[in-house]
Amino acid sequence: MQVCRLAASDLSCRRGERVLFRGLSFALEAGQALQVAGSNGIGKSSLIRILAGLSRPYSGSVEAEGTVGLVDERPALDPHLPLGKALAFWAGIDGAAEPDARLGLAPLLDVPVRYLSTGQKKRAALARLLGQRASVWLLDEPLNGLDTAAVALVEKLIADHCADGGVALVASHQPIALPGAARIELADFAL
Amino acid sequence: MSGALFHILRRDLGLLLLGGRRGGSLLPLLFFLSVAMLFPFAVGPDPVLLARTGGGVIWVAALLAAILPIDRLIEPDLELGMFDQWALRGISEEWIALTRIVAHWLSFGPPLMLAALPAAGLLGIEADKLRIVEIGLLAGTPGLAALGVTVAALTAGLRGGAALGGLLVIPLAVPLLVFGAGSLATGGESGLALTAAASLVLLAVAPFAAGAAIRAARG
Q1: Domain tally, chain A
Q2: Separation between Cα atoms, residue A24 and residue A13, nearest integer Å
């Protein structure tokens, strides 16, 4: 795994006229994970998008080293394509092999993406993430729609990723077991 | 990078070409032919009048056919989150816009040039004039494609984006139309050269304009 690091200093985020949070700082070195917790609408997704460089913070700065992988509510898979082909598109760009067997997607590869359930799409998005071999993981509500077995699997994937020297930031309102992970309550930074 | 663009172009073509999920090239083609077919019914069968106005009709029909898939060029991929994932992989919006212009042009340019043959028959356009129409379409349709993708990016995420897109393309396409159809009246190469020039300017500007618009739409 390449050298990776994710740091934010004095971040604040504004949505329209409202400042969602301010003064948020953290630094994640290789092998570390961070859980961002908070209720709906507190700015978890906005934070993830800022960290991914997809939107600009109101103030503050983000420092990311290494490739960044993102899983959010949109799986970025063509709805009309069979899952296998939709994943193959990203595998072609990322130079990845078959989707990870642990995700149990093998029986679903012929099913068009639009017929997949929320949890199945989430697992497919995780397969895309694993294929990307990104060193910094940004996961926005990775447990949405997942059953207990899949929740345990996601927890294990994150633990493995960190053990391999990766960085993971998980935004979730659900409890998620991340041994050794730091935890930030976004509400502490709200106004 | 080029490998990634190749995959993206292949996906774009799969979506936009004949039978693709985003309309495909069949619809613009049939639209174009039906306009060429309706025109003689509307203005009457006078062959002199038809031959004189036919070239212009082909150009207007080509413009309208290029507008048809405009709402499906950029917006669906923004909604799917494709652009976010491409951005994370360091593939810039400009490159993707350029790739999409190529795919959009392939989906309607060559098919329209083929369909211009039967359309010319319907409108009674002679062979030497048809040659100018075909060269003009070859020179002008890439500019229409560039315009289409730019406006699609500008209107992505807006309510009523499809109608607005069509409305925005038409005035911007005036130079192409004037030079393209005008080359028929003068019968000269200068009109074709100006069509190609307008097309090249649009092609040069479009990826940057569309790229900036996509980033702005992502907010």
Answers
A1: 1
A2: 9
Asked whether the predicted pLDDT for residue B23 surpasses 80, the reply is no
Among residues B188, B181, B183, the alpha carbon closest in space to that of B60 is found at B181
Domain count, chain B: 1
A-B CB pairs within 8 A amount to 54
Residue A37, domain CATH: 3.40.50.300
Strand order in the sheet with A182-185: A68-71, A136-140, A167-171, A33-37, A182-185
pLDDT at B19 (0 to 100):
64
Report CB contact under 8 Å: A80, B21.
yes
Q: Tens digits of per-residue pLDDT, B31-69?
A: 888 988 888 888 888 888 888 888 888 888 888 888 888
Q: How far is A92 from chain B (nearest CA, A)?
A: 7
Q: What is the pLDDT of residues A9-36, one digit of tens each?
A: 888 998 888 888 888 888 998 888 999 9
Tell me the average pLDDT across B131-160: 91
Pairing status of strand A167-171 against strand A182-185: unpaired
Give the range of the structural domain holding residue B173, as residue numbers without chain letter: 2-218
Residue B219 pLDDT class (50, 70, 90 cuts): low
Residues of chain A contacting B219 with CB distance shorter than 8 Å: 55
